[in-house]
Amino acid sequence: MKTVQDKNLLEMPIGVFDSGMGGLTVMREIMRQIPNEKVIYFGDTARVPYGSKSKETVTRFSRQIVRFLQSKQVKAIVVACNTASAYALNDLEREIDIPIIGVVKPGAKVAAEVTRNGQVGVIATEGTISSNIYTTYIRQLRPEVQVTGKACPLFVPLVEEGLWQDPVTDEIAKRYLSSLIDTGIDTLILGCTHYPLIRSTVAKVMGDHVTLVNPAYETARELKELLMEKGLFNPVPPQLGTNKYEFFVSDGAEKFVHFANSIIKYGILGAKVIQIEDY
Amino acid sequence: MKTVQDKNLLEMPIGVFDSGMGGLTVMREIMRQIPNEKVIYFGDTARVPYGSKSKETVTRFSRQIVRFLQSKQVKAIVVACNTASAYALNDLEREIDIPIIGVVKPGAKVAAEVTRNGQVGVIATEGTISSNIYTTYIRQLRPEVQVTGKACPLFVPLVEEGLWQDPVTDEIAKRYLSSLIDTGIDTLILGCTHYPLIRSTVAKVMGDHVTLVNPAYETARELKELLMEKGLFNPVPPQLGTNKYEFFVSDGAEKFVHFANSIIKYGILGAKVIQIEDY
């Protein structure tokens, strides 16, 4: 029989953070796959994007966010940002005593499993690509796999401008992806949380024979396993009237809520603005 | 005869700041038009862009930067960022006792002077457009002028991706500018410091009959006048061996220097990274 303390622990929320709005694709998968869990989402909209910034800066920002989430009594943390996962996760893991996972390892694992010809591509921000982190993780599992990375800096602004299906996005995708097509990859990781939103464009350019891996989906799966393994999985829904999902941002709540409602069909009513530098 | 104190004052540098790299187009004009002045440039590359962020956040960031520049003993400050000029300049003017100018007023003044048909367009970031600041200043000078604003969020990432002359930039420019063409403007303000870099694309789309106003150029002119008026203008070049131009950023010095050298033909050797939140 569970004690009161255990029950309270199970009901504690999961903390999810991203540089801004992209991490909502991860949040969406968590809501679908483990619908009993409460979630606190933080988007660092005052300092977005992270993808073009340095390891030191992204790590400093991530530490502040982890401190904020811990002040909210989260039972586990998901780094729902590829750049922060690439740059900061190793440090964060050592510094806190609750489970923390990123989006890179789950994506890398699936890519290593599904490739048949051993040629994997990764599209992501400049930061994630230059960190070589997908290559490192994939090679740990299958050293013979060849990994080719390609930074796609315009994809995030195109997504945020709403051009999810548009001739301009097609043209930019063709340019970014041509070098990956030339290498003969059969598996492509969507290594930035915005990219699932232009999945159909990427699929069209790459062709049917290339499997697209969405780390957002894999991360939610791995989170579920981790919660079960650690005895933190909540088997029952929160009580009626409980605020299941809470959203915090460092700037521009209204714009965030508007974008969030285009990604997550949940009727998000609001987001609170906090001053993240104070953490 | 000038006293020693006056001479020291004249030799003090001008502080110039921007959210990142765009303000270098203003810096370039200052270097051309008042070549005897020493300049300290700060680019907030850790928190760039400002254009999509709120007034409160942009003002908080701008205050920190002004404190940093004052710690460097600047004799005057140029807010070389349209969004910061739109949101923060009024507050900053009240808070400090050295001259400070932004890029908006000089651009608005020239636009009000040059329009013949009284129809002026402004292209800028979301922040600058939603502040309505160009409209406000132009109407103060000529109340009958009609001002039409258009936010162009993709221009900055396109410029930073190096697509200064490219069919994709042409296509995006056509979409953004079509509503301005329809209003029959004869004058268009390039209301974001990145835009002079795609001036030829904008000129091609708008046609010969539309005069483009570059606030960077006008700001350097106004700065010169202001320095002369306040007795701060330096008539002689700095001594040989003096470090005339210094660059500071909050992140990614190497990337900044690379971009800076594509804009300013001066052989910029380096930029120092500082932690701007500490100011």
Automatic annotation (TrEMBL), chains A, B:
It is an enzyme of class 5 (isomerase). It catalyses: L-glutamate = D-glutamate. One of its GO terms (biological process) is peptidoglycan biosynthetic process. It holds the Pfam family Asp_Glu_race. Keywords: Cell shape, Cell wall biogenesis/degradation, Isomerase, Peptidoglycan synthesis. PROSITE patterns: ASP_GLU_RACEMASE_1, ASP_GLU_RACEMASE_2. The keyword Translocase does not apply. The gene is murI. GO terms for molecular function: glutamate racemase activity. The keyword Electron transport does not apply. It comes from the Bacteria. InterPro entries: Asp/Glu/hydantoin_racemase (IPR015942), Asp/Glu_race (IPR001920), Asp/Glu_racemase_AS_1 (IPR018187), Asp/Glu_racemase_AS_2 (IPR033134), Glu_race (IPR004391). This is Glutamate racemase. Provides the (R)-glutamate required for cell wall biosynthesis. Substrate binds at D18, S19, Y50, G51, N82, T83, T193, H194. Pathway: Cell wall biogenesis; peptidoglycan biosynthesis. The active site is at C81, C192. Belongs to the aspartate/glutamate racemases family. Its EC number is 5.1.1.3.
